[in-house]
Structure to design on (392 residues):
């Protein structure tokens, strides 16, 4: 019993030593081994195009359009087109019942013809009166008639000349009135004022139109060969946008398709939507293939700066060290710090002007062994401590 009791403390000591050795081994492997071999996230230096853009949204609309209305009142007798029809300038679009207007024209023509006949009669009477006046003048010189008779002949001629002038004025006025009646009659037929496409029709056949107060809208015709993208830009960004600025956009239906154009105009007057000040920017685009349609929504990108086919690395790969900006480049023996000279920068990518070659492999981040998250240079390339588990 005494021998067993004396060996028990020794056993406990041995077990404690073994546990301590195991813990030290695990700690060494975790601390030193992990520090010696961090889990790098690698990136291959490649050539690509990068750009800085201002993002906005907008709506497509026809650049040129006209709202066709009725200039006379009456019942819409017929519509010659439908929505979607392509029409040419001066093509017949619709007709309004012209019975009343035709009657007025016929009445005005008859009245004008009557006055012209009266004018011919007055001319004939003038001819006879002038003949009598000439004869009476000869008789007066022979003392065959009195002065009163001669004066009466002269007065008759003057009166007929005045009547002729008055009738000519009436005929001129009636002719103008007839021209107006004919124009009104022509308004009963509505023609296309431009080449384009019928995009909407606001009336139906048989509907009564009242043009006494304002011209009732019949249809809208638009030229869909060139559309305008009306874009809303915040006041924080609008000062960086200018006419001629390059831009591209995509539609909801074809998000991968890019349409390129330039800014036509920045409207000076803003719109306030939910207490947000927005300025409208107009962009014209040729509608090749008629793939773009009125009222489509577009995601718009104004290109502030761009670089094509340049060497790039992720912005998170840059770190500031004693020698300035640089990256960790993969080598045969591990990694080495390489100083780089930057070109254009975006939020996610930077252009490498000097220091790296295409195909070089650099550290883009370090994976956290506990969480699996990638740790990058959180403060960016302009300053602050480097990201990841260790600096350089």
């Amino acid at each position: 019993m005494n021998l067993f009791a004396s060996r028990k403390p020794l056993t406990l000591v041995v077990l404690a030593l073994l546990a301590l050795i195991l813990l030290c081994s695990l700690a060494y492997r975790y601390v030193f081994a992990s520090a010696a071999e961090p889990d790098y996230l690698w990136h291959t230096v490649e050539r690509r195009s990068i750009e800085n853009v201002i993002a906005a949204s907008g709506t497509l609309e026809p650049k040129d359009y006209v709202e066709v209305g009725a200039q006379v009142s009456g019942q819409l007798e017929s519509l010659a087109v439908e929505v979607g029809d392509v029409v040419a300038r001066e093509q017949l679009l619709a007709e309004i019942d012209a019975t009343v207007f035709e009657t007025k024209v016929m009445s005005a023509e008859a009245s004008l013809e009557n006055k012209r006949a009266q004018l011919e009669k007055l001319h004939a009477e003038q001819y006879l009166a002038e003949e009598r006046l000439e004869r009476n003048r000869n008789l007066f010189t022979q003392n065959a008639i009195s002065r009163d008779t001669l004066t009466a002949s002269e007065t008759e001629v003057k009166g007929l000349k005045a009547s002729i002038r008055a009738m000519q004025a009436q005929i001129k006025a009636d002719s103008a009135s007839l021209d107006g009646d004919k124009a009104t009659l022509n308004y009963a037929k509505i023609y296309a004022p431009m080449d384009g496409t019928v995009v909407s029709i606001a009336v139906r056949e048989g509907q009564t139109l009242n043009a006494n107060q304002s011209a009732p809208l019949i249809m809208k015709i638009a030229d869909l060969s060139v559309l305008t993208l009306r874009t809303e830009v915040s006041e924080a960004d609008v000062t960086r946008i200018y006419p001629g600025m390059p831009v591209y956009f995509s539609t909801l239906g074809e998000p991968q398709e890019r349409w390129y154009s330039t800014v036509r105009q920045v409207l000076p007057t803003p719109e306030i939507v939910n207490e947000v000040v927005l300025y409208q920017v107009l962009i014209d685009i040729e509608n090749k293939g008629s793939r773009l349609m009125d009222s489509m929504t577009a995601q718009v990108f104004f290109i502030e700066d761009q670089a094509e086919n340049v060497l790039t690395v992720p912005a998170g790969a840059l770190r500031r060290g004693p020698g300035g900006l640089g990256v960790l480049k993969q080598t045969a023996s591990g990694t080495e710090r390489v100083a780089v000279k930057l070109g254009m920068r975006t939020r996610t990518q930077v252009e490498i002007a000097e220091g790296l070659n295409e195909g070089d492999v650099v550290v883009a981040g370090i994976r956290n062994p506990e969480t699996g998250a990638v740790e990058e240079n959180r403060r960016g390339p302009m300053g602050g401590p480097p990201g990841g588990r260790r600096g350089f």
